[in-house]
Amino acid sequence: MDRLPWKLFLLCCLATSESSAQDLGQTQFICKSVPKDMDLCAATMQNSGPAEDLKTTVMQLRETVLQQKETIMNQKETIKELTSKLSRCESQSFPAAAGPGGRRPGAKNTMGDISRGTAETLAQLGHTLQTLKQRLENLEQYSRGNNTVQANSLKDLLQNKIDDMEKQVLSRVNTLEEAKSGSRNDSEQRNRVESTLTSLHHRITDLEKGGKENRPTDKFQLTFPLRTNYMYAKAKRTLPEMYSFTVCLWIKSSASPAVGTPFSYAVPGQANELVLIEWGNNPMEILINDKVAKLPFLINDGKWHHLCITWTTRDGMWEAFQDGVMRGSGENLAPYHPVKPEGVLVLGQEQDTLGGGFDATQAFVGELANLNMWNRKLSITEIYNLATCNSKAPAGNVFSWMESNIEIFGGATKWAFEPCRSAN
Predict the structure, then answer these.
(1) Spatial CA neighbour of 345 closest among 367, 372, 306, 321
(2) What does DSSP assign to residue 166?
(3) Confidence tier at 11 by pLDDT (50, 70, 90)
């Protein structure tokens, strides 16, 4: 018999069914003739069919396993870092929070909760609790001198509540330290803490009022000790439509690199209707309808300063006064745009949404007092009288600095204040 022009080779390939994992044991043999001179390895690869697909799948799985391994290693480092932070937090009894960041007003708030990690959040809560405890100690001294039985009873109740809050914070640290991984409903926890702090603040304020009934209702200051997104104060009434205005306030801060947002006024559809802000490494700015003017103020020296800004819609003319002296002026700031009514006036935070959307990096850190607003341009003499505490100084006819006009939230504190006496 003549030699056949084709030589037969038996190629045995393992084929894996793709239908289910139970078919892994099913195999079949595939036999195919190939030319005599063809490379057997090439023929095998060319005709492998399912085997080649299986090889590709295995390679992909291997690559996925390597990626997951790298991810696990990164997560272990994150867990290690979190554990270290929690240990420092517990050992140092809640140190003060870190410094600010920076973000353009009106930008989307990507922080959601407090975006500095669990350890720093707990540190902020601890600092707030210490502040409230200090106020209670002051009230205790007052009640000793006046033998006020009711004040003592309420003080003891508040003291117990603060002790309970401290236990909750420590319990939260221990829980996170034991878990080390996995998600937690931090937002719900923070809301409960904020609600309790706000309730404590209101009750302490009521107690302080009971001991200081003869104190003028405008002789107080607000203190924002931490850069958070939950400490703020809010005006109980909105502002009217204004074609001109003057806004004045006393301010004290040593925050660096910027003091944050002393106040912001938002209306439906415009979060930056009227904002005073110093953020990042920028100078202080006044925003009207998102239009910006840079102000020549230098205030973050830890001393009290009196600031006034005037504005008129005609040509957008503005003037800036510090400590009774004009420091700068300009025009074309939101010309012919009246400040809209029916908005929300917030102290200590910049609003990204109506009455909310706060960002801790833009929060005010320091002390505020005597914020007054008029729907007209004050004269230079009137502004000087305000800065020097002259008895002829006018009171704000649009917003006046009275305890009954302001609500306080999130643990911001309130103290007695005498403008010029405190400034000296």
Answers:
(1) 372
(2) H
(3) very low
